Amino acid sequence: MSSNSGAAALKESGSFRAWLIKPNVQKWLVIITFAIVPVILLLLFIYYPIGKMVEFSLYNMSYTKVKGFVGLKNYIDIFAKPELFQTFRVSLYYMVGAIVQIALALYFATILSFKTKFTGVYKAAMFFPYLVNGIALGFIFKFFYTRGYVLDTVLTAFGIPLESLPYWLRDQSINNWSLVATSLWKYMGQNMVLFSGAIMSVDPTLYEAASIDGANKWHQFRYIILPSISTVLTLNVILSITGSLSAFEPPYVITSMGGNGTATYFIKMHETAHTLHKVGLASAMAVVLITIIILCTIIQKLVFKYAFRNSGTDSAKTKMKRKQFSKGVN
Question: What CATH superfamily classification does 76-329 receive?
Answer without folding.
Answer: MetI-like (1.10.3720.10)
